[in-house]
Design goal:
The chain has twelve helices and ten strands. By secondary structure, it is α/β, with parallel strands linked by helices. The chain has three domains: 68 residues, Winged helix-like DNA-binding domain superfamily/Winged helix DNA-binding domain (Arc Repressor Mutant, subunit A); 106 residues, 3-Layer(aba) Sandwich (D-Maltodextrin-Binding Protein, domain 2), CATH 3.40.190; 101 residues, Periplasmic binding protein-like II (D-Maltodextrin-Binding Protein, domain 2, 3-Layer(aba) Sandwich). The strands form three sheets. A six-stranded mixed sheet has the order 4-3-5-10-6-9, with helices on both faces. Strand 7, helix 9 and strand 8 form a beta-alpha-beta unit. Helix 1 crosses helix 2, helix 2 crosses helix 3 and helix 6 crosses helix 12. It comes from Paracoccus broussonetiae. Keywords: DNA-binding, Transcription, Transcription regulation.
Length: 298
């Protein structure tokens, strides 16, 4: 048994789907099924019941799920503590990055500065959904993450880099059709579905917080350039980062729907027990210089 099998079990249990778990874990569906089978065979316990359309926990699976989550967190704490004892800026640092434009994240500046100041430190950058980034932080598969979030995830410290504004947009071709119409009328057309447990989901909820509408959600998109392309093609309503929305509007691809906006935070997040880790401190210092930060961590 290894930590990957436990994490696969927990992810499938949360999402009730092998397909969605494979996407979240960045592995194939056969790999997910294989890990689950190996885990069940080793434990000699059936954890999940599978049908052609869904996956549900067995009674044994329900009893063991919280234990699996605790084991993942304990493994992450063990890895973090071992790295903290190392006491020098070398080895490998794995950073997760949310699916936004790398230039907006100033990722090139960050990596250039770290490489120049800490040549012995090997950096591994992994791009993924917010849900995957948060789970990977818990299980120590990554050491820190640059993501979009209005709140600090439990068990983490957060260095806020900047505020980001997102705007509700519609396809440019819909402009006259929806001129002067209300948000409730807009709910009658398709919307781009945002990924669960993501910064975009928080933003959409904030934009719609004073309304009772339930949008008709269609295609799911978790990458901002994909969201822009889908809205521009007329697939549905979406939310775009302000700078990207202005660019798309100037290109004649989208229109703003009223003044529906939401503000969130771009931040670097890492586990609380990594605060004294030399590699994390190196990244925090570089980020503070790049973004001109004077204060520190939440």
């Amino acid at each position: 048994m290894d930590i990957r099998q436990l994490r696969t079990f927990v992810t499938v249990a949360r999402l009730s789907s092998v397909t969605k778990a494979a996407e979240a874990l960045h592995i194939t569906q056969p790999a997910v099924s294989g890990q689950l089978k190996s885990l069940e065979e080793e434990l000699q316990v059936k954890l999940l019941s599978r049908t052609t359309s869904s996956v549900t926990l067995t009674q044994s699976g329900e009893a063991l799920l919280s234990r699996a989550e605790q084991a993942i967190e304990a493994f992450g704490a063990f890895v973090h503590q071992a790295r903290a004892l190392r006491g020098q800026v070398d080895g490998q640092l794995r950073i997760g990055v949310v699916m936004l434009d790398p230039a907006a994240l100033r990722l090139g500046e960050l990596l250039h500065g770290v490489v120049q100041r800490h040549p012995a430190l090997r950096i591994d950058v992994q791009v993924g959904r917010t849900s995957w980034l948060l789970d990977a932080l818990r299980s120590a598969e990554i050491d820190g993450a640059i993501l979009v979030s209005q709140t600090r995830p439990p068990g983490t410290k957060m260095l806020v880099l900047d505020e980001m504004v997102f705007r509700l947009v519609i396809p440019a071709r819909w402009d006259q059709e929806f001129d002067g119409r209300s948000l409730s009328q807009l709910a009658e057309v398709p919307w781009i579905r945002v990924a669960p447990r993501s910064g975009h989901q928080e933003i959409m909820q904030d934009i719609l917080k004073d309304s009772t509408i339930r949008p008709i959600e269609t295609v799911e998109a978790d990458h901002e350039q994909l969201m822009r392309a889908l809205v521009a093609a007329g697939v549905g309503v979406g939310v775009l980062r302000e700078e990207l929305a202005l660019e798309a509007r100037a290109a004649g691809e989208v229109k703003f729907f009223g003044d529906r906006v939401a503000t969130t935070r771009l931040a670097f997040v890492y586990a609380e027990d990594r605060a004294d880790d030399q590699a994390i401190r190196a990244i925090l210092g570089e980020l503070s210089d790049i973004w001109g930060l004077k204060s520190a961590v939440d």
